[in-house]
Amino acid sequence: MARVIATEAKSPKLVVEKSTVPARTGQELKRALSVYSRKTGVTFRVASNPEFLREGTAVGDFLHPDRVVVGVEDETAEKQLREIYGPVLDRKFKCPIHSAGACPDGAAPAWVVTTINSAELIKHASNSFLAMKISYANMVADLAERLGGDIGEIVRAMGLDPRIGSSFLSAGLGFGGFCFPKDLQAFVRLAERSGVDFSMLKEAEKINKRRIDRAFDKLREALWVVRGKRVGVLGLAFKPNTDDIRFAPAVDLVNVLLGEGMIVRAYDPEAMDRARAVLPQIEYAKSPYDAAENAEALIIATEWDEFRKLDWDRVRDAMARPFLLDGRNLFSPREMKSRGFEYRSFGRTE
Questions:
Q1: Smallest Cα–Cα separation from 252: which of 201, 216, 292, 280?
Q2: Where in the chain is the domain with CATH 3.40.50.720?
Q3: Do 6 and 42 touch, CB atoms closer than 8 A?
Q4: Among 77, 119, 169, 179, the one annotated catalytic
Q5: pLDDT, tens digit, for every residue of 51-81?
Q6: Which of 62, 140, 239, 333 is 20 to 30 Å from 4 by CA-CA measure?
Q7: What is the pTM of this model?
Q8: Can you name the residues that pair with 299 across neighbouring β-strands?
Q9: Can you tell me whether residue 245 is helix, strand or coil?
């Protein structure tokens, strides 16, 4: 790509890297542009502008960011980027997400100017820290189960401390998707090549991988014999409001269930077409109620809002055995037990 830009450009250009890349990629890009532009004599500036967009809410995240990070080497590059982001920073645009006057209140986005190397590190550091928070919550959840605590109460109180915050302290099946696992692994490899010990992040990754085994242990404890038994799975995407199944905990869990000889029928509002390509051997339900039909266990693997609003009495009556494994802690153990479910979740006394 650097060669194409360098050979095709007819005038000076600012080249901005947006993708999550290893640190010092910007320096390599600058070197490559310089090499390939020797014949044309065109000059280039390089900047890093990492994106912090979430799947399912990317447009809103772009238009209403909490910060805009730009890694630059001179004031001219910063000025160009500031002009590009002007409408977002000054909030002078017609929002396609919210109706007039309904955009989120609060301070204008922070304009963060750094070196190129720092900007490249910021994205990896941010995603890895959020992944670590999830693993920390899951680690504490396992201890809470042993000692009779409630992870919901624990993280709620933790989150009230502004130094900690409440986001990404959710216990359950762990994190997935394309960004968190990839960025965490890339950050660890970068540290290893640089001679820095990132064992903390290695352990966070190990904790996350063990969540699937932890979930299956709960299922086996309840059913005892699992081979040949029918299990319904609600959710296949790695998170709600997307059809993305890359590194989805639900997919990993389904593969474990199949490996143990269970019959799986799954439902997801958006992700079933994609799931068929990687899980052709399972049944796909027409609805959550269809997934529960004659099942001896039902697992909530993705926290779709649709699942919160189900007629759970109807779900219970459809099942051969009303065992519910809530992999996302959507419901109160007391409430679900009062409805006649055998109920298991993560980090709560049940």
A1: 216
A2: 2-121, 210-344
A3: yes
A4: 179
A5: 998 888 889 899 999 999 999 999 999 999 9
A6: 62
A7: 0.91
A8: 233, 325
A9: coil
Q: Is 179 a catalytic residue?
A: yes
CATH topology of domain 210-344: Rossmann fold (3.40.50)
Token look-up 């095709």 returns 8
pLDDT one-digit tens code per residue, 21-39? 878 888 889 889 988 888 7
134 touches 208 (CB < 8 A): yes
- Residue 176, amino acid: G
Written as one string, the DSSP assignment of 270-338 is TTHHHHHHH-TTSEE-SSHHHHHTT-SEEEE-S--HHHHTS-HHHHHHHSSS-EEEETT--S-HHHHHH
Domain 123-203 = CATH 2.60.120.600: no
The domain covering 2-121 belongs, at the CATH homologous superfamily level, to NAD(P)-binding Rossmann-like Domain (3.40.50.720)
3-state secondary structure of 44: strand
